[in-house]
């Protein structure tokens, strides 16, 4: 589904005072959930099925909520007696993934940039090429060479204020775009999920689910599926390494910024300083996590997820891997003639990552967290139907 098509479709319906019709992907999720609601075999797997039992119909906002609650673990596909080649063709992870891709586009801010999700592989490549070209050109312009720059000081190549001036606007824009996009999603799904406000217990439960990646355990603790119907904890573990590696790298940057401005301690830092410890642990964790996710992604069962989103998934994994390994390589190359080149590679990768955060796979973490929060709120409300239990 294309963003402009979605906007035109919605505008036409609104102008006529009609309910906005579901897209083909949304209608397919609704069709499959009607079958699941009669079957309910998968109730114990994840949060989607208990949430489903609170509904008899599946309008757009409910489908958006449930699609982002799905973790694409594959459990309900491998358990399903109505999965292809059965004529019912129930494939919940695939149908949910297609709607998730649509929601990322439809809720993107600014709306015109939602189109970047459709050509995300190309968008990442262009952003990376642009980031590398920018820093290579700047290094040559400022230092006259990419080789044999003396010393181990990054700021001798790129002054601190120049880096802040380049990165801060891009990072702030990415944060704003993600926040405004998820706010639109929240406003749409909140009425469909009881409309009740966030509470401390609901927030604590959703935070716990996010930090543990709870729904990648298959609901029984043995794990989810990847290439076949065998359970595996590999996806959860490599997701954890990636997730916490990213957070540690972010923490390293935050601590380094505070050290620079509050303590007057500029980079580079050495072991055992806090920024270096956080950055080294984060870099190693991110490298291992993304390498594992890449391997798992290449082997993923053909019926899992949306094949059209594979370039986005793999592009994001590859960019995170490049960011982590170039950062570790830069550490190893400090004070050598290769330092300037590696610094350009690392900064170009980080710039491409920041620039594409709101329009790529990173969005799934933000939208899924919002869906988990709404689920934790909704399940605390009286059951509207009374035919199923949470
Ligand atoms: S995915 Fe299949 S087995 Fe599971 S609840 Fe739906 S119809 Fe039943
Ligand atoms: S794929 Fe996994 S997370 Fe998604 S609905 Fe099925 S069981 Fe739940």
UniProtKB/TrEMBL annotation:
Keyword Membrane: yes
InterPro entries: Citrate_utilization_prot_B (IPR012830), NarG-like_sf (IPR036197)
Record bears the keyword Cytoplasm: no
Transmembrane segments: 122-142, 162-182, 241-262, 274-294, 315-333, 339-359
UniProt keywords, alphabetically: Membrane, Transmembrane, Transmembrane helix
NCBIfam families xrefs: CitB, PRK15033.1
Protein name: Tricarballylate utilization 4Fe-4S protein TcuB
The organism of origin for this protein: Paenacidovorax monticola
């Amino acid at each position: 589904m294309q963003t402009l098509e979605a906007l035109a479709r919605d505008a036409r319906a609104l102008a006529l005072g009609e309910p906005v019709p579901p897209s083909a992907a949304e209608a397919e999720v609704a069709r499959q959930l009607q079958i699941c609601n009669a079957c309910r075999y998968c109730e114990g797997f994840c949060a989607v099925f208990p949430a489903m039992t609170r509904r008899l119909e599946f309008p757009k906002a409910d489908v958006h909520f449930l699609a982002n609650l799905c973790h694409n673990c594959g459990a309900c596909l491998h358990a399903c007696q109505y999965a292809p080649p059965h004529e019912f063709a129930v494939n919940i992870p695939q149908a949910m993934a297609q709607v998730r891709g649509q929601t990322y586009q439809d809720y993107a801010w600014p709306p015109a940039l939602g189109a970047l999700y459709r050509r995300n592989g190309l968008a990442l490549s262009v952003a990376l090429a642009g980031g590398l070209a920018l820093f290579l050109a700047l290094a040559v312009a400022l230092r006259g060479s990419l080789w044999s720059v003396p010393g181990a000081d990054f700021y001798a190549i790129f002054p601190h204020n120049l880096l802040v001036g380049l990165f801060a606007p891009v990072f702030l824009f990415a944060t704003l775009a993600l926040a405004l996009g998820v706010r639109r999603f929240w406003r749409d799904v909140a009425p469909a999920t009881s409309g009740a406000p966030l509470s401390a217990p609901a927030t604590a439960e959703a935070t716990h689910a996010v930090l543990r990646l709870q729904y990648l355990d298959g609901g029984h603790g043995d794990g989810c599926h990847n290439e076949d119907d065998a359970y595996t904890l590999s996806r959860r573990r490599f997701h954890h390494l990636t997730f916490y590696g990213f957070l540690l790298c972010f923490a390293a940057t935050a601590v380094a910024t505070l050290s620079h401005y509050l303590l007057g301690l500029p980079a580079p830092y050495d072991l055992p300083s806090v920024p270096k410890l956080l950055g080294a642990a984060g870099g190693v964790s991110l490298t291992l996590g993304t390498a594992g996710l890449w391997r798992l992604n290449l082997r993923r069962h053909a019926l899992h997820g949306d094949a059209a989103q594979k370039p986005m998934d793999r592009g994001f994994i590859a960019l995170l891997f490049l960011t982590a390994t170039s950062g570790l390589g830069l550490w190893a190359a400090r004070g050598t003639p290769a330092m300037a080149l590696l610094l350009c590679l690392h900064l170009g990768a980080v710039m491409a990552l920041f620039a594409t955060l709101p329009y790529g796979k990173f969005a799934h973490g933000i939208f899924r967290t919002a869906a988990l929060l709404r689920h934790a709120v909704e399940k605390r409300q009286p059951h509207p139907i009374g035919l199923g239990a949470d």
